[in-house]
Amino acid sequence: MKKIAILGSTGSIGTQTLEVARNNGDLEITALAAGSNIDLLERQIREFRPPLAAVWTEEKAKELRIRTADLDVKIVSGMEGLLEVAAQPESEILVTAIVGMIGIRPTIAAMKAGKDIALANKETLVTAGHIIMPLAKEKGVRILPVDSEHSAIFQCLNGENRVQLKKILLTASGGPFRGKKKEELKNVQVEDALNHPNWHMGRKITIDSATLVNKGLEMMEARWLFGVEPDNIQIVVQPKSIIHSMVEFVDGAVIAQLGTPDMKLPIQYALYYPERRYLPGDRLDFWTLGQITFEKPDMENFPGLRLAFDAAAAGGSLPTVYNAANERAVAMFLEKKIGFLEIPEIIQSCMEAHRVIPDPTVEQILETEEETYEMIKGRW
Fold first, then answer.
1. CA 155, CA 245: separation in Å to the nearest integer?
2. Stretch 364-377: mean pLDDT, rounded?
3. Could you give the angle at the alpha carbon of 377 between the alpha carbons of 374 and 380, nearest 5°?
4. What three-state secondary structure class fits 168?
5. What is the mean pLDDT of residues 322-350?
6. Phi first, then psi: what are they for 203, rounded to 5°?
7. Which pLDDT band holds residue 356 (cuts at 50, 70, 90)?
């Protein structure tokens, strides 16, 4: 039995991870952590019987303790609770499916405790890749990507000499507004932006897909995961989400990973790597598919992607500003406080106002995040 702990068990990736565990029957869930959805968390605890569970607030933790009094489970809360879940002695793999920079400290704690990381938290590498990747090497732990695109690249590179890698071709669906101009995007409603053509994801990542910011974050994540400079990462729009990403080698050969848009595939691949397991679900039918088309991303009408390349080129603390500004702007858009086009405007304003710290510590990263939030609060 492989033993796994999950940060973000009630979210999209977390629930699908538990579905993979349910289907296979040989994964033991040793710990679960969630934000505030204790109704679902209680059901998960009752089904998978982990000895440890965490929620963000102590108030929710108290309520959950009462609800699970008949079970042998310890309920913890706050950042200390997340750190306890991350470093729990029983687990072998930590699935980081939590959203936001809140995932950095638990990821570091897990690595220091010798855990492999099934990484679904983009922000950890976007903001702290210069800390995370050397630490993984030092501790001898594996970073196993769960994002469909990074899993695809990881699979394409399996058995290859990475020194011979020339370029990463990171695919994007283009989101629900592909082909639209700024004039058409002015009056976009939250409901429109949440209607992704291919994927069923959490609300925040769905908005990021609509602005193409998600692809910018994935580019910065790929940079650290695979040791490739941003100039050698090309974004390619592939509207049907059939090709999940590609790699090009020095001899011109290109290898692609294809599949249906189902997040359980990269989740299962990360949890059982290097073994492949049977996965129920649809399969690609190339006769029915007919053709796969490609486009260049539109960085003029979707400037969030261009700003990501600017942030990656500058490096240091600027990717943290990019990420934090986007997090807050997306939250404001979902609350209908700002318009869709204001998301990249807020990101750009925050980036322009920031003085870059070349090699930030975790503390400086978190301080930069807070400063960015304060700037937005004062101006919007």
1. 10
2. 97
3. 140
4. strand
5. 97
6. -60, -45
7. very high
Alpha helices (H) along the chain: 12-24, 38-48, 58-67, 78-86, 104-112, 122-139, 148-156, 182-185, 190-193, 203-211, 213-226, 264-272, 286-289, 303-314, 318-334, 342-353, 362-379
Cβ atoms 328, 376 nearer than 8 A: yes
Which pLDDT band, with edges at 50, 70 and 90, does 212 fall under? very high
CA distance 120 to 139: 20
- Lookup: tokens for 63: 């309520």
- Tell me the C-alpha distance between 224 and 342, whole Å: 29
Burial of 50 (0-12, 13-18, 19+ CB in 10 A): buried
Instruction: Give the burial class of 367: count Cβ atoms within 10 A of its Cβ; 0-12 exposed, 13-18 middle, 19 or more buried.
Output: middle
Mean model confidence pLDDT for the chain:
96
**Does residue 105 sit in helix, strand or coil?**
helix
175: left (phi over 0), alpha (psi -120 to 50) or beta: left
Token pair in block for residue 314: 């500058």
Closest CA to 146 of 291, 272, 312: 272
* pLDDT single digits (tens) 252-284: 999 999 999 999 999 999 999 999 999 999 999
Q: Is the whole-model pTM more than 0.90?
A: yes
**The residue type at 142:** R
How far apart, in Å, are the Cα atoms of 328 and each of 48, 195, 221, 334? 34, 21, 20, 10
pLDDT band at residue 195 using 50, 70 and 90 as cut-offs: confident
Pairing of strands 165-172, 243-249: antiparallel
In which band, very low, low, confident or very high, does the pLDDT at 225 lie, cut at 50, 70 and 90?
A: very high
Spatial distance between the Cα atoms of 170 and 152, rounded to a whole number of angstroms: 9
Contact 100, 123 (CB under 8 A): yes
Average pLDDT (187-211) is 87
Contacts of 183 (CB under 8 A, 6+ apart): none
